[in-house]
Amino acid sequence: MLHSSDIVFIGLAITSSWGNGHATTYRSLLRGLQQRGHRILFLERDQPWYAQHRDAPRLECCDTQLYSDFNDLRTRFAERVRTADAVVVGSYVADGRAVCDWVLQHARGVRAFYDIDTPVTMTHLRSDTCEYLRADQIPQFDLMLSFTGGPTPRRLQAAYGARRAHALYCSVDVEHYCPQRELRSIALGYMGTYSRDRQDGLERLLNDTARRLPAQRFAVAGAQYPPDLHWPGNVERIEHLAPHQHARFYGRQQFTLNLTRADMRKAGYSPSVRLFEAAACGTPIISDPSPGLEEFFAPGAEILFARDAEEVIEHLRLAPAQRQRIAEAARERVLNAHSSAHRAAEFEHYLAAARAGAAHAQPGDTTCRSAAAAR
Q1: What domains, with CATH codes, occur in the chain?
Q2: pLDDT tens, 84-117?
Q3: Is 127 helix (H, G, I), strand (E, B) or coil?
């Protein structure tokens, strides 16, 4: 175990889960780190849309501080960033390029980047349209952590000159996400913010199924869906659920649906945090196929795949005992490999290796960047 460390995170959001998957990802990881004795400061830009939907203004796992803009961040937190054992910048941080430059120049400890949107990031890096990270910054970080695994970390090293790149998948706080005593009155539910490239899958796998099974109930929870979308009459719409309501929502479902964004499906090995949450709550999962997903859950035994409403209906008709076996197997997998404690231990391991390497480099060192530029 790494000795107790002072770690600063600068991330998109942790106080509000509205319209983003970052908050629950950070909460789980930081809870695991806090339980292992680390001191954590999370810095979040105060955005109006999160301020209106702040479901965790204070968290036990970390000290959370809001800042108004980049100048406010630099003025108030320069000393903490400079002296921290590690500083982690996350994807989609506002003024992220400037934040990265500042951290790379001033932080004395390990400088890391945690990308919870790696396939999207890499798409925009190629055209230099990524607003929160430049390609030339990647070799300067001591550690690149990626939401996506498989070949992606190796690609970050080979194509972008990353010093160390590792997968750090989402995880789940198994103390808060566990089976509930609820009446499973929803045949199939889905939780996720609106995404245009996921909407076709939602139409095929949930809405079409609902139209074919008018006597059964369905539910979709998530923000930012266009008001002009047409929903079948037996689909319950829930605008937003705070994380403390997630377990109960999963508990009401006989099955839950997982849908993968196009960039994530193309890269593969990008398990959504909702997969781990649902499995921890003992709810069997029906998912659209995505490369690498079988590395996390065994098809047929721990997860079910479907390409259209016909296949979804076939799964919904499984005997309750078989449904229960699938749910219990998936929960066991999560408890053994994808809890907050597991992810925090992995983070510690990567941080320790980066710390050993960073001892030989100074903040702002451009050696690796120059080597990458020469490729």
Answers
A1: 6-171+341-373 (3.40.50.2000), 186-337 (3.40.50.2000)
A2: 999 999 999 999 999 999 999 999 999 999 999 9
A3: coil
